[in-house]
C-alpha cells in the first residue's frame, strides 16, 4: 500500500501528465477519526461516503483497486440504513442486506459499494482486485513481529 502511494502512483502521474490524466489515491482508512472507531455506523458513513466522493456522477463506477489478503476484516454488529448516508439513493443495496440479518466486514461493505453495477456498464473495467498470498515463513514472521 505504501509503495503504491509513494512510488507507483507518482510514476503513473508523471507519465500521464502530458495526457492530462492524474490518479488520486484514496485509502479508505484515511479520514476515520478516533471517536468514529467506537461506532459501526460512523465508520460505514465515512468509508462509504468517500467512495461516493470518487464518482463523477450517479451512474459512474469509480476506479477501484482492492488489495486483499487472507484476513476478512472487522465484522460489525450493526449496519446503517440508507437514509444515514449523504447520498441515500446509492444505498438501496444496503437496505436489502440489512433485511437478511447477515453480518459482514467493513471491507466487504466497501467492496460491495464500490463495485455495484451501474445502470449502464462502462466499456472498460474499473474494478481490480489483487490478492496477496503469504508464504508460511512470512506468516510466521508477521506473527513474531506482534508483541
Walk me through the structure.
- Strands 1-2 form a two-stranded parallel ribbon.
- Helix content is 39%, strand content 7%.
- Helix 2 packs parallel to helix 4 (106-115).
- The longest helix is centred in the first third of the chain and has 15 residues, at 2-16.
- With 147 residues, it is mostly helical.
- It has 5 helices and 2 strands; from the N terminus they run H-H-E-H-H-E-H.
- It has helices at 2-16, 40-53, 92-99, 106-115, 136-145; strands at residues 64-68, 127-131.
Characteristic key phrases:
39% helix, 147 residues, mainly alpha, 5 helices
Shape: globular
Helix-strand sequence: HHEHHEH
Number of strands: 2
In the sheet with the most strands, the strands line up as 1-2
Tell me roughly what share of residues is in helical segments: 25-40%
Distance between the termini: 23 Å
Q: Give me the secondary-structure category.
A: mainly alpha
What's the story with the biggest beta sheet? Answer: 2 strands, parallel
Instruction: Estimate what percentage of residues fall within beta strands.
Output: 5-15%
What is the radius of gyration? 17 Å
Instruction: Give the number of helices.
Output: 5
Mean pLDDT: 76
Contiguous runs where pLDDT drops below 50 for at least 5 residues: none
